[in-house]
Each structure stands twice: as structure tokens, then as C-alpha cells.
Fold these 3 entries.
Entry 1:
Amino acid sequence: MTGLNTVLILVGLFLAGGVYSFRKQGMPTGVVVLLGIGSVMCLVAGIMRIQGIWD
């Protein structure tokens, strides 16, 4: 399932870019925090799947 790993990591990086952009635009802190949490969750899930910890 390497395709899912790649998608999770790419979505996480996309969301991380959104966090940077939203913070720079002065969006509400709640939106930035939620986007950051989603980014971290996607990145961690993709990395855990690559490591074989979570199948």
C-alpha cells in the first residue's frame, strides 16, 4: 500500500503549506491550529505506515 502512504504524506505537506499561508494572512488561530493538527496527523499516519507500525 505504498500509494496510500504517498497520498497521506502529500496531503500532510499540503496542509502544512496551508498552515503557513493562513498564518501569514492573519487567519483566526483556531483555523490555523485545526489545520496544523490535521497536517501532523496525516504526516504521522503516512510515516507509521511506511515503517510498518500501523497496517
Note: Helices lie at 2-25, 29-51.
Entry 2:
Amino acid sequence: MDIYTIIFLALAVFIFLRLRSVLGQRTGSERPPFDHAARDVVRGGNDSVAPLPGTIIDQAPLAPAAEPVDASDRWKGIAPPDSALAAGLNEIVASDSSFDVQHFLTGAKGAYEMIVLAFANGDRRALKDLLSSEVYDGFDTAIKGREQRGEKVETRFASIDKAELVSAGVRDRIAQLTVRFVSQMISVTRNKDGAVIDGNADKLTDVTDVWTFARDVSSRDPNWKLVGTESGH
């Protein structure tokens, strides 16, 4: 027996042992392979369910039930219990179980800054992805007016101090969330000669905006879009 034969035999034994350890051994007491037809059911006119004859496999134990969420704590720090805002948030969760209010608020703050800066820079491409068609048309009209007058806007954020929910709800599968933003920024408008015609380049301004975001909860698109803006107090 040459060396190559010995190597091949050793390799075959090794593979056999590995397969045996992975797949296990039959003992004669195993259940027969699962017959999918055996799990089919027929529904009678009285809405009863009768299993068809065949092999029945053991059901896996149910996972422990999640502890119920205390309604008074569900929106703690976001909305008072039994308030209209809490009821609106419950409507959204009922329509979209994946909704996470803290994740939304974080995204809303990012969107707020992106939209303000994109508007100042006249970045229509960025705005189109973040705004509803109606809001985009209004922003586009304002940008065109600036361009025609040769004006430039310079905006710099110092901070976004607050982003708090004002209202929430679902209507016709459209979820809406209104957020009040309180921020500090420097924003100036210059004419075509570079002179400041609005704002102060050396002074922070307190700004409050109330924006409404919407999303079709029946859509697979997870993104919210800005559908309404107004100045806050």
C-alpha cells in the first residue's frame, strides 16, 4: 500500500466522522419526515377547523409573552397620558408597529437642518427628496425669486435646542406628525452687490418653526416628507 492510498483512506475516515458528528445517528425511534400535506386543514361552514389525517409533529413551545406596556409610561417624556398627542401616537403605532418616536425625532432634527441649508443654498435636488410636491413648489418659487433678483442667502446653524411633538395622528393611511423646532442660527440675505439686506452676519437669531411631516403607512417607503411649514411662537 503506497503513501497516497494511506492518505486517501485517512481523508475518507475523517470526512465520515465529521458527517456523523454533524448529522447525527439514526436510532430507529425518530419520527418520519414531516409531511406538509398532513398540516393542511379544512374549514367547515361552522368555522371549525379539522386537521386532515397524517403525521402530526410536536409544536415548538411559545415564546414568553412580552410584558404589557403601561399606557401611562408609553410616551413618557413625549406626551402626557390620555392627551390628544398620546392618542395620535397610539394611532400611528396601531397602523405601523415599527414606528419609533425617538428615532423619528432624531431624523426630524436632521431633516430640519438639511432642508433649511438646502433652501438657503438653492439645492433643489436635496429638497425634492425631502419635501412633498406642494411644499417643494413653494420653496422652488422662493428660490427662483431670489435668483432673479441676484440675491444670496447665507445660513449657519449654532444649535437645535428643541424638537418637540405638537400633534400626531393617522387619516386615510397617512400618518402625520407636527414638530416644533427651536434653534439658533445666523442667516443673512445679500443683494447682487454683496450688501446685507436682511439679517445680521454677526448675531445669532432665535428661530421657532412648526413643521408637519407625513408618511403613507401602507407604503414600504420608510421616509417621512415635509408637508407643511409655519413660523412658531
Note: Helices lie at 3-23, 84-95, 101-121, 124-130, 133-149.
Entry 3:
Amino acid sequence: MTELEPHYAGIPASALPPIERQPIHVVLDNLRSAYNVGSIFRTADAAAVAHIHLCGMSAHPPHRKLAKTALGAFDYVPWTYYERNRDCLDALEAQGIPVVAVEVAESAVSLAEFAWPQPVAVVFGNEVHGVNERVLRRARAVVRIPMRGHKNTINVATAFGIVIYAILAQWRIL
């Protein structure tokens, strides 16, 4: 471990040096897998996202399965749980944060072609059913990850990593 790569396991969040959070809000719309939610927390910490908004059935701390994959990242990434996704969207709208859904849809813009606004709230949906139709109607845009194989979807935690790092690259933050 070098000075550039400190390991913060076991150090309370209040004792850590401040970091510059990126103006990215993550909305998890009814994710079924606590393991996926935990993985998203870890990647969100790596990318220094501003906030994770957990909606509906999405696992939220404290949760044993989430903790297994998050490895404590939920102590470092600000998060809020909403029973109803519309309450989350209302809160983001009140803050003037545009919502962009990541979904397989015919009208969706390719990830490579989309100009990401700053700030932004990025919605990721249920592993089987995708982003809720009511959420899609409220989104400013729908973005898709181009697929070249026979399947048209990938794991939601993997999709999250691809999208978040594409945003950071486009904003020249990496």
C-alpha cells in the first residue's frame, strides 16, 4: 500500500479526509439483489458519487448481504432510502437535478452519444423488469449501453460501473 492508496477499513467516516464528491446522484429503482446494491455502493465510493437513493425493495443498510459486497462503503457514500420512488424523484426535482434512466428501450440514446448534464441523477432498474414505467416517463432522457451479443442486458452492478465511469470520462474527471 502506498501513500496514494490509503486503506480505510475500520476507520470511522468522520475521521477520514474530505473528498470532492462528483455531482452524480444514483437512483436504484427496486433492485432485487442486495449483493448488486452492495457492489454498487463500492463502485459509487470509488467514483466519489454525491448520493445513492435506494427505492422500494432495494436493500438498504443495515443488511447482511449488502454488507458482504459493500465492504463498508455505505459508511462513506451518502445514501437515503425511499419507500416510494416518486418521493425520491420529487426530492431530486426540487433540487433541480435532472433524471436520466439507463434502460434498454428503442428510443434510448447510446451511452457513447449522450451528453451528461451536471449535476445528474442516474436511474438503474430492477434486474428483471428494468426501470419502472412511471420513472421512465419522468426521466429527461433514457440512455442504453450498446450490446453486441445475443443478450440485450448485463448485470445491473456491471452496467452501473460502465455508466458511472463513462460519465466521469466525458466530464474529464478521471
Note: The mean pLDDT is 90.
